[in-house]
Design a protein that fits this description.
By secondary structure, the protein is an alpha/beta fold. The protein has a domain of about 150 residues: Rossmann fold (3-Layer(aba) Sandwich), CATH 3.40.50.720. Helices cover about 35% and strands about 20% of the residues. The protein contains 8 helices and 11 strands. The longest helix is centred in the N-terminal third of the chain and has 21 residues. The structure holds NADP nicotinamide-adenine-dinucleotide phosphate.
């Protein structure tokens, strides 16, 4: 198997593109890849291709969620659950850029959490293995949020749902939970009362939840913000020939690796 689901490439006919692989044609970590032009957009010459390659996938997860799944209304508040990862840290910047009045970032890595205010987080919440402590902190910081971007799922998400709904001043006011990643596990055990006694609306975001056409329509404006630096990311560029050793070495949190042929 050749891994890789997206990338930046130069077309044989010329021109730089960002592309997302089709559902059954992976293999972007390669010198050459098959690209469905319907899942690609042209990029301006002279841009930092490595930065675009690094940023698009993690940034898209929140950008498309807040533009296509639950369009963010200016002034709303957003909680990013799992904000210490690359996608989560970008979600904070994306939410602010799209008009969120208040953004709360929650995660467990204290060093990464400390970096989030500089990216736009109004408050950060340290998650711990003690569910009661985490629930108390989330209840204090995020009880009134309108939208949650969830990169964790499993126990931390179930705990956060109950904490927020319990502490919420008006449980009939909608909270939109957007499931994006599953770093903590693929399944969730949620008390039925969460859906019955509150206006909790759960949906997910990813390819399939949003059509390829809608994704493609969102990409150019996201590229603009990445190139402008409104939505930033730390990148490490590695020659593709070093993929084997890089694959098995530990990653530095907050730095995204891009393989360059
Ligand atoms: N649907 C989409 O469109 C889309 C797009 C991009 C990414 N994703 C998904 O989003 C998730 C995050 O991606 P990423 O690129 O941000 O990954 P990443 O940079 O590797 O970051 C993952 C983060 O998750 C944290 N984490 C892991 N387990 C945790 C737990 N039990 N409790 C709290 N934090 C935990 C890690 O924190 P520690 O430092 O504490 O370990 C790390 O900060 C992945 O599941 C990915 O597949 C989805």
């Amino acid at each position: 198997m050749v891994p890789g689901i997206d990338g930046v490439g130069r077309m044989r006919v010329g021109g730089l593109v960002y592309f997302v692989s089709g559902d059954d044609t992976w293999g972007s970590m390669a010198d050459q890849a098959v690209v469905d032009v319907r899942r690609s957009i042209p990029l301006p010459e002279g841009i930092d291709a490595t930065k675009v390659a690094a940023a698009m996938n993690p940034a898209m997860s929140s950008w498309v969620a807040l533009r296509r799944r639950v369009p963010l209304k200016p002034g709303q508040s957003v909680l990013v659950l799992g904000a210490t990862g690359n996608a989560g840290a970008m979600a904070i910047q994306v939410a602010k850029h799209l008009g969120a009045a208040r953004v709360v970032g929650a995660g467990r890595n204290p060093e990464r959490l400390a970096e989030l205010p500089a990216l736009g987080a109004d408050e950060v919440v340290q998650l711990t293995d003690d569910a009661n402590v985490a629930a108390e902190r989330l209840g204090e910081a995020a009880a009134e949020v309108d939208i949650v971007l969830d990169y964790l799922w499993a126990k931390p998400a179930a705990n956060a749902i109950m904490a927020i709904l319990t502490a919420r001043s008006d449980r009939s006011r909608a909270v939109d939970w957007i499931q994006i990643g599953a770093m903590a596990g693929p399944t969730i055990e949620l008390p039925s009362v969460a859906l019955r006694s509150a206006n909790l609306r759960i949906q997910g975001n990813g390819q399939g939840a949003v059509s390829p056409e809608a994704y493609r329509a969102e990409l150019p404006s996201l590229v603009d913000q990445i190139v402008a630096g409104t939505i930033g990311i730390n990148v490490r560029s590695v020659p593709l020939s070093e993929v084997e050793s890089t694959w098995t070495s530990p990653e530095t949190p907050g730095i995204r690796t891009v393989f360059v042929p």
